[in-house]
Write a structure and sequence with these properties.
InterPro entries: Na/Glc_symporter_sf, Na/solute_symporter, Sodium:Solute_Symporter_SSF. With about 220 residues, the protein is mainly alpha-helical. About 75% of the residues lie in helices and about 0% in strands. Helix 6 crosses helix 7. The radius of gyration is 21 Å and the shape is globular.
C-alpha cells in the first residue's frame, strides 16, 4: 500500500488532467508557476490534516475498537469510522454534525464535477475532434461535451454501486486510481528523464494492462 500512496500522491498532484487544465489557465508562465507553488502548499496541508485526523481517531478508539463491537456500534467497516465519530462525539454542539457532513458532501461533489469535466474535455479533444474535425462546430462540441459528462456520471454511479460491498473503500479508491495514474507517472518520468523514449519504446496501454493484472492478482 505504501507504493500505492506514493504513486497516488505523485500522479494525482502533478500530472492529472484536472491539475494540468487548472495550471494552463494562467496569463503567463510565472502565474502558472505561482499557482503550482500554492497548490503544493495546499496538498501538503491536506495530507497533514488527513494524517492528523487519523491519529485522533486512533487515540479515541485505541481501547475500544468499534469494529469489534458491532453489536453496540452498528458499524462493520473502518470506512464508517469518520461518520460514527462525527455522530457520537460532535452531537452535543447544535449544527456541528450537519456542518461536517455538508463539508464532506460539498468537497466530494466539487472533486467529482472537476473530474467529469476533465474526462469529457480530454475525450472531446483527443478522440472526437481528430476523427470528426470536418463535421464539428462549437455548438455541437458543447452538446457532445455535455453528453460525455452525463455518460461518465452514469458510469461513476454504476461503479459506486458495484463496489459497495468492498471491505475498504479507501483501499479500493487508491487501487483504482493507481492503476491509471501509475502508468501515467511512468510515461511522464520516461519522457522527462530521457530523450530516447518513443511510442515504440513504451506504450501506455501495455503499462496499464500490466498494472491492472498485478492489482487483480494481489486481491486473490
Amino acid at each position: 500500500m505504501q507504493g500505492d500512496h506514493l504513486a497516488f500522491c505523485c500522479a494525482a498532484c502533478r500530472i492529472l488532467m484536472a491539475q494540468t487544465c487548472n495550471l494552463t489557465k494562467g496569463e503567463s508562465l510565472n502565474c502558472d508557476w505561482r499557482a503550482l507553488q500554492w497548490s503544493i502548499l495546499l496538498v501538503v496541508t491536506l495530507l497533514f490534516s488527513c494524517t492528523f485526523f487519523g491519529i485522533i481517531l486512533y487515540a479515541v478508539y485505541f481501547h475500544c475498537d468499534p469494529i469489534l463491537m458491532q453489536s453496540e456500534t452498528g458499524i462493520r467497516k473502518y470506512d464508517q469510522l469518520v461518520p460514527y465519530f462525527i455522530v457520537t462525539r460532535l452531537h452535543s454542539i447544535p449544527g456541528l454534525t450537519g456542518l461536517c457532513f455538508a463539508g464532506i458532501f460539498s468537497g466530494s461533489l466539487s472533486t467529482i464535477s472537476s473530474a467529469l469535466n476533465s474526462l469529457s474535455t480530454v475525450t472531446l479533444i483527443d478522440f472526437v475532434q481528430p476523427l470528426f474535425s470536418d463535421r464539428l462546430n462549437p455548438t455541437l462540441e458543447l452538446y457532445i461535451a455535455k453528453g460525455l459528462s452525463l455518460m461518465y456520471g452514469v458510469a461513476t454511479i454504476a461503479l459506486t454501486l458495484a463496489i459497495t460491498n468492498v471491505d475498504s473503500l479507501a483501499q479500493a479508491t487508491i487501487v483504482f486510481m493507481s492503476v491509471a495514474e501509475g502508468p501515467v507517472l511512468a510515461v511522464f518520468l520516461v519522457g522527462v528523464l530521457t530523450r530516447k523514449a518513443s511510442d515504440k519504446v513504451i506504450s501506455f496501454l501495455d503499462v496499464f494492462l500490466t498494472n491492472s493484472f498485478l492489482y487483480v492478482k494481489s486481491f486473490k
